[in-house]
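Reply to dn_fold:

You asked what the input looked like. This is it:
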Amino acid sequence: MKSFKTVMAILLTTILVVSVCACSSKQPTKPTSTTSTTSTKTTSSTTKTTTSKTEESEWDWSWQEDKTIVITKYKGTASKVTVPSKINGTAVTALGSWTFRENKELKEVIIPDSVTILKQNLFMNCSNLEKVTLPKKVTEFGDQLFEGCSSIKRIVVPEGVTKLEYREFARCTSLEEIVLPAIDEIGEAVFSQCSQIKKVYYRGTETQWSNIKRSKNGTPEANHAEYEHICNYKGN
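and this is what came back:
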């Protein structure tokens, strides 16, 4: 009788142990899924922050009275630069004096149409600059804007410009073509040392061209350039 009780006790104990082990093995685990989700969110957040810091670090800027932004300096090292039309959601409407001055890395710059003010000396002595896309229309086109840009071959001056200011394109020794709106005045030494000009495209009429007020040393011919002028120009 004692042997029978002993056997039954052992049997019940064994069944109990097996049941407990089986239940433990069926419990689901979720640590891996939770860790993966957390990691994905962290990575996404880091990427956004890095992009924002990189954009801000390339430009110095300040507020204007009309609550728009003027960029005052480009601090990057890229050879091709696109000026932002907005910074922190606010429109960029002006490029200040010396924003790109003496930058030897620049080869191409694209300026958006939101920009209507180009201050003096903007590209002065950017000797490797080859191409600039200017806004379609501006209200200010400062003097000595391109002085010393000795690699540029073609410039399209925006609408809204009525006078070429002092030394605007002086020492642009590779300049071959220029597109002008219907300007009515050419200032002092505008084309000084621009002896390679071959064509001047003028959007005004022949009569307007003849009536342009010219300083004695400002015109291409005053700097020994032999060029052709084409009036009523409609191209880019």
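The first helix runs from residue 2 to 25.
Hope that clears it up.
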